[in-house]
């Protein structure tokens, strides 16, 4: 594999493609501060997590249109109330036409509520747990989400973090193409070892550029055709 390109070169390429530095800046996502992450109530994190789970593989606008009904049916996503839903009540939701009747995802909602409540109790809030996780090991957080929660494997964990405002890169097709193009990785980064290699590349670029993971991820995606 060729030597990894300096991020300044990658950024200059993305700026040209975007129409200049100011145009590129407008396209970059903004992660939440530690304080802002801690301020989000647990029920909103469970709602975002569930929205991501139910949106996977479906048209996102369709799922979003149903979300007010999800909020009502799942007790505004208050974790302990959702975790306490009885088996028969959970099964009854398969007849509820206002939501998406996917049994695996319905079960995942209760499981994830219990897992989120457990983390919250141990860390003084789920947002505090997210906020404390170091950016130089964001792939470790992906792994933790996959292990502790249901239906948050693959790209779902990183996309949930992006929704929640936790600074994270996302391995979209364009980002992976850029990682290959600029010498940071060869092939598809699948598995823990590959994710670790990509993390090290982002860490090196972060030290050079002082940019966040989400911003670097977006710049990479914009730097290639």
Overall pLDDT score: 97
CATH-assigned fold name of the largest domain: Endonuclease III, domain 1
CATH architecture of the largest domain: Orthogonal Bundle
Q: What's the shape?
A: elongated
Helix-strand pattern, N to C? HHHHHHHHHHHHHH
What oligomeric arrangement do these chains adopt? Answer: single chain
Question: Can you summarize this structure?
Answer:
The protein is mainly α and 225 residues long.
Characterization of this structure:
- With 225 residues, this protein is an all-alpha fold.
- It folds into two domains: 7-31 and 169-222, no CATH class; 41-134, Orthogonal Bundle (Endonuclease III, domain 1), CATH 1.10.340.
- Helix content is 66%, strand content 0%.
- α4 (42-55) packs across α11.
- The chain is elongated.
Label this structure with key terms:
225 residues, mainly alpha, Endonuclease III, domain 1, 66% helix, elongated
How is the topology of this model organized?
Layout: H1 7-18, H2 21-27, H3 34-39, H4 42-55, H5 60-73, H6 79-83, H7 87-92, H8 103-123, H9 126-132, H10 138-148, H11 156-164, H12 173-181, H13 192-209, H14 213-222
Helix pairs in contact: 1-2, 1-14, 4-5, 4-8, 4-11, 8-9, 12-14
């Amino acid at each position: 594999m060729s030597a990894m390109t300096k991020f300044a070169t990658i950024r200059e390429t993305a700026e040209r493609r975007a129409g200049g530095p100011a145009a590129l800046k407008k396209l970059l996502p903004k992660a939440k501060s530690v304080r802002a992450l801690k301020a989000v109530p647990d029920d909103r994190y469970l709602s975002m997590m569930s929205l991501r789970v139910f949106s996977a593989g479906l048209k996102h606008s369709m799922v979003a249109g149903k979300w007010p009904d999800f909020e009502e049916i799942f007790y505004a996503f208050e974790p302990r109330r959702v975790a306490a839903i009885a088996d028969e009540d959970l099964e009854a939701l398969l007849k509820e036409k206002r939501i998406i009747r996917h049994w695996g995802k319905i079960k995942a909602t209760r499981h994830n509520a219990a897992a989120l409540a457990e983390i919250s109790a141990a860390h003084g809030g789920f947002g505090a747990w997210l906020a404390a996780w170091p950016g130089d090991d964001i792939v470790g957080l992906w792994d933790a989400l996959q292990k502790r929660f249901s239906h948050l494997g693959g790209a779902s964990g990183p996309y949930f973090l992006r929704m929640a405002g936790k600074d994270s890169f996302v391995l979209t097709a364009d980002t992976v193409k850029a990682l290959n193009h600029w010498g940071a990785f060869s092939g598809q980064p699948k598995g823990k070892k590959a994710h670790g290699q990509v993390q090290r590349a982002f860490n090196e670029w972060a030290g050079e550029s002082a940019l966040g993971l989400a911003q670097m991820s977006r710049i990479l995606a914009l730097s290639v055709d």
